[in-house]
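User: Could you go from structure to sequence for me? I need the amino acid at each position, not a summary. Structure tokens:
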């Protein structure tokens, strides 16, 4: 494993543990060249996924991009990084187990929206504002009104 600090292509594993949700192995590594320590994660990949964007462009699925977008939505909310990791793992498992090699970006967005709707309404609205490409305050208002209406209907 290449050292992220000095670029040395060798590193020594000092400690290995299962992650909290048992979906990856966390490894603490040390660079023999500069002495820096860093952490890597090893995950099972069931299949290579390709994301088909709305404009038809195809790109390799980027787990980190999904994690960053969810982290941005939950920023300054009472959501732990471990909870975000569980959401990302769950979405990735759903995508990999779908049997499809090509996944629409719309489906990924839907899975993220569903997870956030059940987790935190503010994070849900933040994510939706980007995912649904809100342009005006009216777009926000309309979306929040729909959420409020759904909440009222589910309480009856």
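Assistant: Here is the amino acid at each position, in order:
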């Amino acid at each position: 494993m290449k050292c992220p600090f000095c670029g040395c292509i060798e590193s020594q594993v000092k400690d290995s543990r299962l992650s909290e949700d048992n979906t990856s192995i966390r490894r603490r590594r040390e660079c023999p060249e500069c002495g820096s320590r860093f952490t890597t994660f090893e995950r099972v990949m069931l299949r290579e996924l390709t994301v088909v964007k709305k404009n038809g462009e195809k790109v390799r699925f980027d787990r980190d991009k999904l994690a960053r977008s969810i982290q941005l939505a939950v920023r300054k909310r009472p959501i732990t990084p471990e909870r975000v990791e569980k959401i990302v793992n769950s979405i990735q498992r759903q995508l990999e187990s779908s049997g499809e090699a090509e996944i629409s970006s719309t489906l990924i967005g839907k899975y993220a929206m569903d997870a956030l709707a059940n987790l935190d309404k503010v994070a849900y609205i933040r994510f939706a504002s980007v995912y649904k490409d809100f342009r005006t305050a009216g777009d926000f208002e309309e979306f929040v009104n729909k959420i409020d209406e759904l909440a009222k209907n589910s309480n009856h």
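One structural detail worth keeping in mind: The radius of gyration is 19 Å.
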